[in-house]
Design brief:
This protein is an alpha+beta fold and about 325 residues long. Helices cover about 20% and strands about 30% of the residues. It is globular, with a radius of gyration of 21 Å.
Amino acid sequence: MNQNLIFTVSSNVRLNEFLRKVIPETLGCEISNSKIRRLIISGCVSVDGRVVRIPAFDLRSGSKVSAFIDKEKLFFEKPADDIKFEVTPEAVLYEDDYLIFINKPCHFPTEKTVVDSRDNLHDAVVRYLWNKNPSLRNPPYVGIMHRLDKETSGVILFTKKREVNKAIFDMFDSAKLELESSQSTVSQRPVTKTYIAAVEDSPKIEDSFTVKNYLGRISSKSSQGKWGSVQESKGGVLAVTDFKIRQRRAGICILECHPVTGRTHQIRVHLAQSGFPIIGDSLYGDGSGVRLMLHAESLELIHPVTGKKLCVKAEADWQSY
């Protein structure tokens, strides 16, 4: 059963603290702090008509807060299917004093989730660097520059020094990529991300094609947590992905994917909307397969210190899927 709860704030307070009080009172049951936090981060809470995903967001007296509640999902605890993973030298694709690129496995979160005890790649990189230099009194710095879905494998970049963060952020800046994409080729973009995805083969798949639309979170009983086409006037953000066929074999089509922008679930949504959901995608497809067959194959950018072009690759062993 779904409910859209609307509250008026009577005094200045943080969003998570406010909801921890009013939602249990309204529903007449206990709700853990982690569930309240999860509700906010998942995009189900709006303040004065705008989605807010920051649990510590400061509310002002008189603000209107709405919370979309799906009781079945709110009270359901899905067991995590995460693998156990430690970063080893074999998983490090490139490392210097400023950057470290890791070959991320599937079924492993990139960063911390609402479940504090859940392991993740960011923490694993911190452990790896600390083990290399155990004389450090405090954990080494590891900066998160971009993210891969838990089910997606492949190249992911972290920084080792804060001084390079701005340069990296500028390269990944979605607005810059959108502005430049209409006048630049893939090789001219400040960051080039190449993914490969496996879909069921079809004669409808063109040798190359581009999907361009506006994406946003879809909130309904059947689509909680999903992203899809949303009009720009209703909060949709521009999403552009270039695709081309790399290989066809045994009823499977391997697509090379170049996301121009960096929206949540962008490649997965664009392929599903085109009629070619990725094999193993339980959210946008039928979920058949042992894993989501999406792999971040390479990441190319200019080194923020040396100025040299870096192209870091991680091959996907599709045969093992």
